[in-house]
Structure formats: C-alpha cells, structure tokens
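Sample pair:
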Amino acid sequence: MADRVALCIPTFKRPKMLARLLDAVAKLQTAADLSVIVADNDAQGHAGLDLCRQTQNYRWPLTAVIAEKRGIAQVRNVLIAEALKTQAEFVAMIDDDEWPEPGWLDAFLAGAHQTGADVLQGSILFGQANAADGHGDIRRPTGPIAMLQGAGNLLIRRAVLEEMEAPWFDPAFALSGGEDREFFVRLSHAGKRFAWVDEACAHGDVAETRASLSWLLAHAYSVGNSDMLVLLKYRPGLVRLTLELVKIFAALLLSPPAAVILVASPNRRALALQKLLRACGKLSALAGRRYNEYAVVHGE
C-alpha cells in the first residue's frame, strides 16, 4: 500500500515563488498517495490562496486555507491542523521559497522506513552563485542526527504530531523565527529520533534583499537571539548557561580582530562578523529582548 503524505506549504505574499513550487510538486516522481495543503498567512491580499483556487486540473488534491494570525509559527500550526484532518501517515513541510527535485518525496519516505526516525530533514541547495553571497548549501550525510536545522524541508510521522498538544509550534516565536528550533528541542526532550536524508534535496531561492552582507549580519543576530530564547525557555542549568556565556564572550573578543585580519577575504570576514552578531543576538535575548526577523517579507 502506498504511503499517504500530506505536503504542507506556508506562504506569505510570494505568489511567484509559490507557483514555481507547485509546478515542481506536480512533477514529483512518486507512487505515494499525496495531498497538498497551502496556508496563506496574508488574510488581506491572499495572493497565495487566489493562486491555488485558480489552479485547474492539478495533479494532486490541493487544499488552500487562510492562516488568520500573523507569523511563521501560526501558519505552521494551521497547516498541521489541516494535515491531521486527512488520513496521511506522514506530514511533509517545504517553504514557498524552495522547490523539490523529482525524487524528493520517495527519498524522504525511504529514509523514514530505513531509519525509523520520527522526524527527518532533507538538504537544501542554493547553488554556486548564492554561495558567494554567504548562502551555502545546507547538507549533512544521510543517517541519524542529534538535532535538525530548520522546518523548510521536513518529513514528520503523524504519530509524533498526534502525541503533542496544540499549538505544535510555539506562537511566542511567530515573528522572531526559532519556532522550528524550539519544536525540535521539545521533541528531543520527549525522546524522539531525528535523521538527515541528503537525497531528499530541495533547492532554495535567495531574494535580492537577502543577497547582502547587511542581511547576513541581521540574520545572524536573529538566529543568536532566537536560539538563546529557546535555551532560556527550557531553563538550562548553571553549567550549560556558563558555557554559553563563555562562547558569547569569546566571540565578542575574537571576532572583531579576525574581521580586521581577514579584510582581504570577504567570505571569511563575513563569517567572523556573523559570529559577532550571533553573540550580540544572544546577549540581547539574555536582556529580555526579542528580534522579529519575520516582520519583513523577502521575494515575490
């Protein structure tokens, strides 16, 4: 019997990217029993919802809904709620600025059956042109892994979601990001197993507004901020918190001179500056501040 999968796609004011993704999903080479769910987080403009409603004779059953409450965590929660209304055994997630290779879904399902993992993540490829802007591929070797990296290319067993209480993604991280990190940490504490499937490749798009050093540094600050907020939520012990503080102050001390020394190597200099901004983001979280990266839209 074919595996039943609900593919969940969050979107917000990026109909061109969503159209590209839906085209790629229609070309998947799979025997899975697939259904597609799109949640549009733009209740006023609803360009994503309109696109889905105008799509005729789509290969897979296509459902589109509005996620009224603004934020990435909110739209992911709407998607899961819709997915659990189906008979799907697996819930896949892919963001609207990504698109899968034809063998993506079957690679994910093969990995799930081979590893028995509860949640699996696939690689995201940005290409050589984007690597020069600091957007390197997100890849890991196939196999068990201690922690996952993001919810943009994901396969989750239905049973995992049914065991959890809603909301599955914490709304406190709706605009800051980090909702995926918090989700994974919570599952790790519950004893769930993770795996990486390098063969489940998706391609990622980098909007022009993200192809700059200023965005990379702002993103590094945001990641540091949300990572620390997640850590603080789970009340780390004194030893863990002390280790984090040591890492922060080491980055504050060593990154500025490294950036000066590496001025002739833009990519390596950018890495040093990102470490610095990530440390600053962590300090801001310790001071009770939250940075809302997802208040800005990138791409179309």
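Residues 210-295 form one domain.
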